[in-house]
Design a protein that fits this description.
By secondary structure, the chain is an alpha/beta fold. Helices cover about 40% and strands about 25% of the residues. The strands form 2 sheets. It has a 5-stranded mixed sheet.
C-alpha cells in the first residue's frame, strides 16, 4: 500500500487518540458490558446492546487509526532547511492579487485538513498549485470560483 504523507502534529494527534481509546475507552466499555450482563436476559437488554455497539465503534476506530499510522510517511518539515520552496508541511502566506486578501495555510495530509483552522489538504487545488513554487512566485490556481492569481509572500518551515 502507498505511504500517505502526515505531519508530526497529525501523527501525534492520532497516537493520543489511540492511547485514549485503548487505555480509557476500551476498559470503560468492557466494564459497561459486564455490568449490563448482570442485569439478566441479553436479548432484551438495551444497555448490553448499546455497550456492544460502542465496543464495535471503538474497535473499528482503533483499527482505522492503526492502519493510518502504519501507512503514514511522517514528515517533519522543521528538519529541512528553509529555502523558500513550498513543500508538504510548510505554512504558506499568500495574497489574492485580485482582492489583496492575505491568507495563511498549512499544507497537511488529507486526514488532518481543517479549513476552519487554515489547514488544507495536500491534494486540494490550492495546495497542489502551491507545492513546488517558491517565495515571491505568482501562481495561477484553478479554484471553484475560477482562476485566481496568488503571490507567495511567506514560506515557513514550522
Amino acid at each position: 500500500m502507498n505511504k500517505v504523507p502526515m505531519t508530526v502534529t497529525g501523527a501525534d494527534a492520532l497516537h493520543a487518540e489511540l492511547k485514549e481509546l485503548k487505555s480509557v475507552r476500551r476498559p470503560q466499555i468492557i466494564a459497561d458490558i459486564a455490568e449490563a450482563r448482570e442485569h439478566g436476559d441479553l436479548k432484551e437488554n438495551a444497555e448490553y446492546h448499546a455497550a456492544r455497539e460502542q465496543q464495535s465503534f471503538c474497535e473499528g476506530r482503533i483499527q482505522e487509526i492503526e492502519a493510518k499510522l502504519s501507512n503514514a510517511n511522517i514528515i517533519d518539515v522543521t528538519k529541512f532547511p528553509n529555502n523558500g520552496k513550498v513543500i508538504f508541511g510548510t505554512t504558506v502566506t499568500i495574497i489574492n492579487l485580485d482582492t489583496d486578501q492575505e491568507t495563511t495555510y498549512k499544507i497537511v495530509g488529507d486526514d488532518e485538513a481543517d479549513i476552519k483552522n487554515n489547514r488544507i489538504s495536500v491534494s486540494s487545488p490550492i495546495a497542489r498549485g502551491l507545492i513546488g513554487k517558491e517565495l515571491d512566485d505568482v501562481v495561477n490556481i484553478q479554484t471553484p470560483a475560477g482562476n485566481v492569481e496568488f503571490e507567495i509572500t511567506e514560506v515557513e518551515y514550522i
